[in-house]
Model the fold of this input.
Amino acid sequence: MRVHLTIVAAVATLLSSIGLYPLFEGTGWAWSGVGAIATVAAAGALSRRLRLPAVADPPVALFFLLAYLTLRYAPGQALLGAVPTPASLARLAELAGEGWETANRYAAPVPPGPGIELLATSGIGAVAVMVDLLAVRLRRAAAAGLPLLALYSVPAAIREESLSWVAFALGAAGFLWLLLIDSREQTRAWGRPVPPRSAAARRIRPHPMASSGNRVGLAAVAIAVAVPTVVPGVHPRGPFGLGAGAGESGSQTVTTPDPLVSLKRELTRQSDEVVLVYRTDDQAPDYLRLFALDRFDGDHWTYSPLQSSPRDRITEGRPLPAPPGLSAVRSRPVTTRISVASHVRNMNFLPVPYAPAMVSIGGDWRVHAPSLMIYSLRDEAAGRTYTVSSLRAEPTPRQLAQAPSPAAEVLRRYLGVPGDLPPQVRRLTEQITAGARSQYEQARRLQRWFTTGDRFVYDTSAIAPRATSDLVDFLLVNRRGYCEQFAASMALMARLLGIPARVAMGYTSGTQAPDGRWVVRSRDAHAWPELYFEGAGWVRFEPTPAGPGGQGSATVPSYTRESGEDNRQPQASAPDAAEPSPSQAAQTPDATPGAGRLADRDAPQAGREMAADAADGGGPFGWIAAGLLTALVLSAPMAARSLARRRRWAQVAPAGAAGRRLAGGGRGGGQAPSDPGAAAHAAWRELRAEAIDHGLAWRSGESPRATARRLSRTLEPGSPAVAALERLARAEERARYARVPAPADTLGEDIRIVREAFGAAVDRRTRWRARLAPPSTMEGLREGAARFAADLGRFDAHRLGVVLRRVFRR
Done:
């Protein structure tokens, strides 16, 4: 039956399935997967118990897996709750379709539901069938690593983030355990092992090939886990995460979530989770901005690398840089006090109303003067409450229409478009704005073209644009999308008209509670275009449809409306694409209050880097700590050798100063050891370690006298070291064979003399290696790893196997 191997194969599959955790919210899929793995293991054991041919194992296991899925997800349509019927198969197919639709609609992690759990359980069960067949029935444990690897390839293909090293280490440990048990089971095929009678026999080493395999496997896992952690630049927060709190000198980098990917997650999650609340003296508050995306590279909008200097740090009472271009229109001060929910993760950009003039917040926060984005290299906004004093510009249509031409630097930076932009986009832009007498009129016509009539459908299930062709398809073909497509398209078309433009991202103003607070939820995440007009600076436009048929809380700025037009935009008539209201979302099975926020811990990383040239004090504490840790690791063999020497002598040395001198192997006689025989053995083991450290061969089959004679050939004839070697050999011989051991009062001094002689007899490289990286210590580590691997191989769930045998015999 191979019960042990069956159990370990199931455990290896279970540990590898942990790597799927980033794909799902909740843990229901995991518990369902545990049941599938157990079912497949039991089916395989039953097939082997009945001595069915190997070709029958997969059908039997798949039938049991189908019965398990039926019992769990379609018991009402099955015979006796578990036997599949056409009705139950139809129900499973329906749930699988729902799960597939959910997987394609939501960004990972997807919300829980029976459909998505069914897909996850089926996949885990299929892998369990393959592992059981390969590892247990066909005895190809190494080949079973391929289906186990498939469990890691799915999240690796979907997410840009790497998996947790803990999940990887668990799966690797399960696979290594499977290899060890398979090797032991194959060894047992030669017959029943003879139990050893003595303790020495029990310490017989395993086969050298097995020991080498154990060491190679453990070393490979350790390297795979450790190298990405310690190599600078691989880990997003530096070695061991220490870069996140690095000091202020030198260059620092921080990786932030891709804003547009995070926005897609927010809008498809259908969550009413509160992201922040705020109070303001503004009667109709404006949007809260996080990012200003100023670059369009032909694939998507991003922001330029942020350059930070000490003067960009925000301090209490210190005003921020003046808003670019805001000089000729009326603006009024607005005070907003914002509280960010504590569950928000990775929000290292502050949501603030534009344009912030002063921010009161604790921690290390900085401002990017050209965009007025507020960010931190080390802190997060979660759980913080801060006050923002901002200037809200109130331009009139007349002022925007008569705005002068922007400066050359603004035109150069904010008018770039891809060189391969299809000409039909330019023609469409010119057609929409034909007859406009100013750039302001052109911008307003673009906004109205997006939001009026039945041209566009607001649909959060649309694929996010990742190339110029995607935006062209949105403008000219399907015309279905959400705020990202609307904002990106209008900004691109504005640049074609010579209007500096960028894409802003953050949250709408939210909804006002009865107590006067404004509440912003994850569904209020939004993107909008900002266009630049000299004298007014960056001005918000709103091309995204609002209301039930669009972004529910979007509003049209007053300076872009016709007289008498409501601030809510005309809505696109598409009830089938309407985003669910809060009450509807609560009633939807897939809607769950998960970790929905714009800066989410599971958002794929865009790799946007902010370089900080900060020489305003402090030191690179993270790198210093990493250097100290590296030095500690490198000095570990030397420290271990010194500790082993002291412990070896301390076990036989008497108390007092003489004992301490003996333990240190230093000069001086003094009180003799209480056990001369044990002291002789300790000295002989120390001599062996010194010989190995200095590259001298040590042959365990030689007698002490023969060993001393061979080692003395490397020393000067007649030197004190030769005499010391002879005394050490004589003491070891008498401790082994004589009734009365030799006196041991000079053993420490003899070892010191031999150590110095060995050092003088070898080259400089070998001498320094003996001091800094003693090979005897490394040999001890290798032996310890081999013993650990052997102990792991002997742990084969024997008791559980006995219980299972009894169950199957019944």
Remarks:
- The first strand starts at residue 251 and ends at 252.
